[in-house]
Amino acid sequence: MSCPLWLKPVGDLVLGTERHQRLRVARTLMAAYVYLICMFILLRGAFLGMCKEEHAYALIAYMSVGVTIFYLLLRSGWSCRRKDKGLVIEQSLFAITAIVV
Fold it and tell me: In this structure, what are the phi and psi dihedrals at residue 98, rounded to the nearest 5 degrees?
């Protein structure tokens, strides 16, 4: 599948150039979109009075920081030194704690 010429440099900047790393980062960004949807749902719930605003903001901050850290760890290549290069276990534990909280 062909993509516009301007899109390749943007993809290289966001995902990296190494094939396996691009795949791991892309999967993490797909999960980030799910977190983003959850953040909007949380904001809506706080707006409707279904949860306390400070709790919603704290959980949104927790999720935002976690997603950013995982992206940076993957994108920087730090995770390539580990056996689990995609940090799957760590990301799963993070997601579970976000759900439980």
Answer: -65, -35
Q: Is residue 60 part of a domain?
A: yes
The range of the structural domain enclosing residue 40 comes to: 19-100
Q: How far is Cα of residue 47 from the mean position of the Cα atoms in its chain?
A: 24
What does the longest C-alpha to C-alpha distance in the chain come to?
47
Listed in sequence order, the residues at least 6 apart from 8 whose beta carbon sits closer than 8 Å to its beta carbon are none
Is the residue at 28 inside a domain? yes
pTM metric for this prediction? 0.87
Q: Residue 61: left (phi > 0), alpha (psi -120 to 50), or beta?
A: alpha
Query: Count of alpha carbons within 13 Å of 31, Cβ hemisphere only?
Result: 20
pLDDT digits (tens, 9 = 90+) for 6-46: 888 888 888 888 899 999 999 999 999 999 999 999 999 99
